[in-house]
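quick q for whoever's on today - can somebody do inverse folding on this one?? i tried earlier but teh output was garbage lol. tokens:
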């Protein structure tokens, strides 16, 4: 049973390998298909040719044998016309005639004979017609042939005779001898050995010729297919290298045929793509340089404004109420402006690819706790308590603590902003190769398709919502890049009315590559409902109050309203 199982497994393995080769190789498909069709055609033609040759040989043999039988009847007719079946010398006279025909057969067995050698048989009926007597191998004559001869006409039949275990095929021709006193029949047994040898030779020739023809067709098909497939393979290899970043890869143009046109078209396409890629790279470099330069240039006046604002903020107790409030709003906006400049510089460095990962092996649990504590006050003010679900044992991984902690702060701030005052759950899990952290909120959730948009820069699902954390709109975009630097990924799930969950998955060691589905935590939370998604609820923003003093708009109220309007635009 084991040997049978191994044989079945081997056959399945070979079948799978051939199936993969069949799917991936155009040349194999063409050669095998050509061989299959050619084999069918050669087989049909071989059968037709063999049938035609066999029928023609047998027809010629039969025609000659019948003519020779009639000639034999005429040659023995004078000696057998007056034979008396009841006389004592009937056997002697029949034996003499049989000997004469036998000698004639030996002479006709030469190369110039038409029907070839034969074995004669004489059969005569006794007086009461109840039985037949014969001279020669009368038992080899089949009953059907005897019945046909008894009707008075020459008859032929192919019959195989078994003589002492040696089977021989004969063409037996029988004819009645006229003008005899009693019914007398002559049978000539022509062996078909020569014809059978000829048919066997033709058959073997057809088989060998067919195999040789198939091999030649396979070789020719393989050669022709290779001439067609080789340029296509070169084009595919060139396209693969081009896709890997070798933008100078080109095909060699040989001749003026269709393959040459393919190479020319490919080269033109590659030139166009390379030109556009370079233009985009130059534009991206200019854009990153502009962002970096603007950010740096804004730092100098911003520093001056910050110093003045800090002085005003420190003396706000001496100001009237409205002016003190304006000072606080000014400091808050400066904080956000500085954070925006820092994020712009960070995203420009990430786009330029100059950021490096300072990874070290640490216990990620402590880092998660620090990130939670950094947003604890904001979460408590928003009414969203943060719950931790951490493993009991150490969860070590090679990470850049600053970047991963920044990812967690962004995810927690996002959960608090959209949590609708409900709890936020942070989970940590790990396996042999990967570590995952999920942040789950039970707020408004995401519409279909928004899970792919949340990581876009400055994208907001609902611009009318106010942020509790004062984000810049670049936090999730930076978090995605930080996750990619670790060789991991940041993913989002959400449903309207069910909340949202963000999952960070990173390898525990930097030399480990993660698959698309490798993660210790599910992306869709276990407590998510499988029921129909509730209808979308539209939230209408309320206008801010504007207070007036002596018929004029109060400056602090105007500044606060302007701040809210900027928040709505973001």
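ok took a stab at it. sequence:
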């Amino acid at each position: 049973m084991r040997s049978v199982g191994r044989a079945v497994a081997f056959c399945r393995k070979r079948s799978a390998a051939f199936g993969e080769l069949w799917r991936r190789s155009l040349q194999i498909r063409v050669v095998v298909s050509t061989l299959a069709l050619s084999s069918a055609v050669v087989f049909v033609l071989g059968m037709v040719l063999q049938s035609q040759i066999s029928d023609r040989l047998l027809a010629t043999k039969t025609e000659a044998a019948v003519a020779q039988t009639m000639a034999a009847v005429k040659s023995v007719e004078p000696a057998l016309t007056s034979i008396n079946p009841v006389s004592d010398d009937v056997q002697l006279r029949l034996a003499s005639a049989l000997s004469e025909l036998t000698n004639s057969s030996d002479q006709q067995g030469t190369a110039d004979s038409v029907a070839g050698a034969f074995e004669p048989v004489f059969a005569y009926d006794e007086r009461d017609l109840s039985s037949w007597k014969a001279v020669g191998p009368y038992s080899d004559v089949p009953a059907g042939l005897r019945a046909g001869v008894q009707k008075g006409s020459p008859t032929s039949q192919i019959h195989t005779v078994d003589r002492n275990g040696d089977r021989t095929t004969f063409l037996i021709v029988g004819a009645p001898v006229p003008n005899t006193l009693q019914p007398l029949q002559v049978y000539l047994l022509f062996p078909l050995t020569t014809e059978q040898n000829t048919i066997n030779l033709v058959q073997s020739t057809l088989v060998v010729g067919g195999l040789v023809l198939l091999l030649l067709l396979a070789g020719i098909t393989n050669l022709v297919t290779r001439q067609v497939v080789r340029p296509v393979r070169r084009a595919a290899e060139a396209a693969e290298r081009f896709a890997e970043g070798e933008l100078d890869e080109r095909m060699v143009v040989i001749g003026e045929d269709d393959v040459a046109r393919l190479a020319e078209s490919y080269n033109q396409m590659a030139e166009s793509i390379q030109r556009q890629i370079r233009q985009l790279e130059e534009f991206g470099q200019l854009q990153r340089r502009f962002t970096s330069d603007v950010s740096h240039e804004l730092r100098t006046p911003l520093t001056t404004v910050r110093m003045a604002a800090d002085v005003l903020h420190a003396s706000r107790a001496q100001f009237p109420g409205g002016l003190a409030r304006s000072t606080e709003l000014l400091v808050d906006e400066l904080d956000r402006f500085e954070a925006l400049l820092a994020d712009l510089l960070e995203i420009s460095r990430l786009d330029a690819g100059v950021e490096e990962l300072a990874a070290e092996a640490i216990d990620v649990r402590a880092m998660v706790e620090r990130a939670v504590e950094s947003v604890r006050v904001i979460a408590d003010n928003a009414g969203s308590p943060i719950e931790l679900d951490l493993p009991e044992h150490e969860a070590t991984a090679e990470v850049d603590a600053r970047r991963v902690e920044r990812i967690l702060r962004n995810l927690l701030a996002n959960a608090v902003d959209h949590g609708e005052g409900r709890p936020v759950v942070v989970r940590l899990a790990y396996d042999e190769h990967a570590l995952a952290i999920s942040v789950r909120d039970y707020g408004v959730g995401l519409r279909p398709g928004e899970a792919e948009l949340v990581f876009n820069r400055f994208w907001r699902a609902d611009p009318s919502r106010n942020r509790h954390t004062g984000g810049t709109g670049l936090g999730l975009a930076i978090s995605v890049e930080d996750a990619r630097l670790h060789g991991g990924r940041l993913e989002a799930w959400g449903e309207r009315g069910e909340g949202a969950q963000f999952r960070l998955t990173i390898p525990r060691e930097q030399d480990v590559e993660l698959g698309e589905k490798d993660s210790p935590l599910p992306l869709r939370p276990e407590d998510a409902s499988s029921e129909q998604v509730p209808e979308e609820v539209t939230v209408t923003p309320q206008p801010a109050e504007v207070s007036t003093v002596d018929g004029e708009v109060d400056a602090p109220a105007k500044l606060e309203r302007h701040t809210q309007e900027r928040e709505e635009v973001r």
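fwiw The first helix runs from residue 2 to 24. also The chain is about 55% helix and 15% strand. so keep that in mind when u check it
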